């Protein structure tokens, strides 16, 4: 069974269709087009199903900045959700290597977001563990009359300060 990224790559290679989005040479001409024509270009591109996601993201960003419209308004004009537009715009903040993989079809946009979601989930889990450890040390410290301050919903700064205080106490005990 082939992955989504493999199927996209194969479709791009087999179709030979050139994307309707502008190339580098056409970008200046496209920016001078009225908003309606630029939207039509995007709609044409979306029909192709094998377009360059990075170029699409660049065009979406350019439309937003050139025409001073909101992401919600743009999403409505191209019959997509705000989330869909935001995900495409986020491609532009991805590392260049990731953009190249998306452009070549090695990595599907959804695959990129799934891996991003996994990183966020892992970070959230690690942060929760750090908070739990800091609270445990705070509770142990209270039993021994030590002051380790930690609020109910601690910030990263508070967590780091609590761990620093715990290290101080630990080294004082071990001396």
List keywords for this structure.
175 residues, mainly alpha, Arc Repressor Mutant, subunit A, 2 domains, 72% helix
Description:
The protein is mainly alpha-helical. It folds into two domains: 4-107, Arc Repressor Mutant, subunit A (Orthogonal Bundle), CATH 1.10.10; 118-174. It contains nine helices and no strands.
The proportion of residues forming helix, as a percent range, comes to over 70%
Domains counted in the coordinates: how many?
2
Any idea what the CATH architecture of the largest domain is?
Orthogonal Bundle
**Spans of at least 5 consecutive residues with low confidence:** none
Give the tally of β-strands.
0
Q: What is the CATH topology of the largest domain? A: Arc Repressor Mutant, subunit A
Major sheet: none
Question: What is the string of SSEs from the N terminus onward?
Answer: HHHHHHHHH
Q: What's the CATH class of the largest domain, please?
A: Mainly Alpha
Beta-strand content bin: under 5%
Structural class: mainly alpha
Average of per-residue pLDDT values: 76
Radius of gyration: 25 Å
Distance between the termini: 61 Å
How would you describe the shape?
A: elongated
Number of helices: 9
Short synopsis of the structure:
With 175 residues, the protein is an all-alpha fold. It contains nine helices and no strands.
Write the layout of secondary structure elements.
Elements: H1 4-15, H2 27-31, H3 35-48, H4 53-67, H5 71-77, H6 82-91, H7 96-104, H8 109-143, H9 156-174
Helix pairs in contact: 3-4, 4-6, 5-6, 8-9
């Amino acid at each position: 069974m082939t992955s989504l990224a493999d199927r996209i790559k194969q479709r791009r290679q087999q179709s030979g269709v050139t994307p309707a989005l502008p190339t580098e040479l056409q970008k200046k001409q496209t920016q001078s087009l009225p908003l309606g024509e630029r939207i039509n270009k995007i709609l044409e591109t979306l029909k192709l199903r094998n377009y360059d996601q990075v170029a699409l993201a660049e065009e979406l960003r350019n439309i937003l900045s050139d025409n001073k419209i909101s992401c919600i308004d743009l999403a409505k004009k191209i019959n997509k959700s705000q989330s869909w537009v935001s995900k495409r715009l986020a491609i532009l903040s991805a590392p260049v290597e990731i953009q190249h993989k998306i452009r070549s079809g090695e990595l599907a946009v959804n695959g990129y977001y799934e891996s991003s979601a996994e990183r966020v989930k892992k970070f959230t889990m690690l942060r929760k563990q750090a908070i739990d450890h800091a609270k445990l040390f705070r509770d142990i410290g209270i039993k021994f009359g030590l002051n380790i301050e930690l609020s109910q919903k601690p910030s990263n700064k508070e967590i780091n300060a609590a761990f620093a205080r715990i290290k101080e106490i630990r080294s004082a005990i071990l001396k």
